């Protein structure tokens, strides 16, 4: 498993600083959620963490190695990245798309379809899409496309998985299922997440981006306090303790029942 860390990381777009002074330490095998309001810099920071946007300042280290010193092929053997709006080309079959995740591990121009097919099928099994390995990508729904792109990242065989809004276009069932799948992989995971309930329920730590900086970092129950949620997201929230299990829940919105359909997250 892989250890990811950043020191004094700053990222710019067009000469404008989007986020700066980011110090992260993501232990091997843990899952970190990046949260923040729209425009807070989550996707921009993610692209810097995987080497697609050079830092304006600071460094990104993967197992102690400066990511900026690695070639794109070497980076792709260490970090698997699934972008927010990345989608499979419609003229490819599902299996062909997932097999592209194996490219960094092949010699140039090499293709070994027989040995890679089982790796592709295993990746698709993780996301419940193995039965559609030979289906054209153009016939997939939006949620199925997201699951295929995650399968491509899994097939890449890296111990560090970086995801930008991985649950986009998924229904509630598949959101929960996908993040449980990611957990079972045992990888080190960094994911930009817009749903605080998912961040609280599935991740070991939460990093909150706000006003161009890392506003808070720590365990979900310590970071996602009613005060922080109100100040950063402008949403009312409260903690409730389950009288049976003793577990603390974050209730977002108008408040606790009997207000209809509050969003709950297990912390």
From TrEMBL:
One function term, GO molecular function aspect: ATP binding
Pfam families, sorted: ABC_tran (PF00005)
Top-level division of the source organism's lineage: Bacteria
Native organism: Janibacter melonis
Keyword Transport: yes
Residues annotated as domain ABC transporter: 4-236
Keywords: ATP-binding, Nucleotide-binding, Translocase, Transport
UniProt-recorded name of the protein: Molybdate ABC transporter substrate-binding protein
Gene3D superfamilies cross-referenced by the UniProt entry: P-loop containing nucleotide triphosphate hydrolases
């Amino acid at each position: 498993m892989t250890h990811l860390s950043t020191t004094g990381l700053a990222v710019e777009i067009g000469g404008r600083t989007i986020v700066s002074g980011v110090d992260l330490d993501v232990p091997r095998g843990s899952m970190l959620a990046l949260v923040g309001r729209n425009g807070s810099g989550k996707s921009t920071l993610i692209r810097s963490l995987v080497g697609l946007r050079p830092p304006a300042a600071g460094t990104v280290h993967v197992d102690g190695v400066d990511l900026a010193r690695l070639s794109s092929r070497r980076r792709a053997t260490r970090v698997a990245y699934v972008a927010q709006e990345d989608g499979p080309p419609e003229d490819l079959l599902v299996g062909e798309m997932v097999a592209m995740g194996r490219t960094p591990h092949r010699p140039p121009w090499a293709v070994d379809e027989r040995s890679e097919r089982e790796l592709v099928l295993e990746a698709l099994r993780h996301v419940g899409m193995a039965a559609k390995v030979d289906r054209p990508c153009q016939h997939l729904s939006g949620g199925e496309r997201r699951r295929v792109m995650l399968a491509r990242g899994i097939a890449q065989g890296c111990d560090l998985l970086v995801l930008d809004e991985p649950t986009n276009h998924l229904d509630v069932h598949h959101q929960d299922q996908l993040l449980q799948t990611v957990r079972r992989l045992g990888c080190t995971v960094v994911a930009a997440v817009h749903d605080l309930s998912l961040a609280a329920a599935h991740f070991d730590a939460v990093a909150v981006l706000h006003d161009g900086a890392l506003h808070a970092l720590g365990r979900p129950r310590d970071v996602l306090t009613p005060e922080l949620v109100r100040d950063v997201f402008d949403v009312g929230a409260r903690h409730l303790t389950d009288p049976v299990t003793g577990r603390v829940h974050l209730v977002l919105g108008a408040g606790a029942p009997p207000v209809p359909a509050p969003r709950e997250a297990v912390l």
